[in-house]
Amino acid sequence: MPRWRPNVTVAAVIERDGRFMLVEEHTAQGLRLNTPAGHLDPGETPAEGCAREALEETAHHFVPTALVGVYIARFQRPPSSGEERRDSEEDVTYLRFAFAGTLGAFEPDRALDEGIVRTLWMTPDEIRASVDRHRSPLLLQCIEDHLAGQRHPLDLIHTDASVHAPPKA
């Protein structure tokens, strides 16, 4: 029996003047909204992954300053149009680390990740009113927790040195 592994993702909760930066992206389910987010890559801490994903999806530098929360969600994903036909949907679990932080410099010539159409700034009420377009069921919860002032120190997440330099076998 294969070992169960959740998909670890990182998300940037970026707020400015009462609005939150979201990305609009093409998905198998159509155009969806999300916070700048993506999968954690090998050899990086969750905060480093969050900064990388924010840059790749928004062309803005982002410096995580606090952990908003750790979230988990499970859903059934239908096969994409280009995938082999499967008799059942794929059971997917995401473990998300969401960070608040400082939005930095914009790189206007930087290409956005494949599938990202644009960034946009939305109010909390606009985000609440667009739940049917959210890519992740965790998007709104991260925004609500941020609005509630939920912040945890970055050192809540301990990263062993082996993440950056795995021990030799």
Would you kindly provide a brief summary of this structure?
This protein has 169 residues and is an alpha+beta fold. 17% of the residues lie in helices and 40% in strands. It has a single domain (7-80, 88-155), classed as Nucleoside Triphosphate Pyrophosphohydrolase (Alpha-Beta Complex).
What's the SSE pattern? EEEEEHEEEHH
Rg value: 16 Å
Widest β-sheet, arrangement of strands: 5-1-7-6
Q: Into which percent range does the helicity of residues fall?
A: 10-25%
> What is the tally of helical segments?
3
Keywords: Hydrolase, Magnesium
EC number: 3.6.1.-
Family: Belongs to the Nudix hydrolase family. NudJ subfamily.
Subunit structure: Monomer.
Notable traits:
4-stranded mixed β-sheet; alpha+beta; Nucleoside Triphosphate Pyrophosphohydrolase; 17% helix; 169 residues
Verbal overview:
This protein is α+β, with helices and mostly antiparallel strands. The protein has one domain: Nucleoside Triphosphate Pyrophosphohydrolase. The chain has 3 helices and 8 strands, in the order E-E-E-E-E-H-E-E-E-H-H. It has helices spanning 46-58, 124-128, 138-147; strands at 7-13, 15-16, 19-27, 30-34, 37-39, 60-77, 90-106, 116-122. It has a 4-stranded mixed beta sheet with strand order 5-1-7-6. Strands 2, 3, 4 and 8 form a 4-stranded antiparallel beta sheet that branches. The protein is globular. The two termini are 26 Å apart. The mean pLDDT is 92. InterPro entries: NUDIX_hydrolase-like_dom_sf, NUDIX_hydrolase_dom, NudJ. Belongs to the Nudix hydrolase family. NudJ subfamily. Its EC number is 3.6.1.-. It comes from Variovorax guangxiensis.
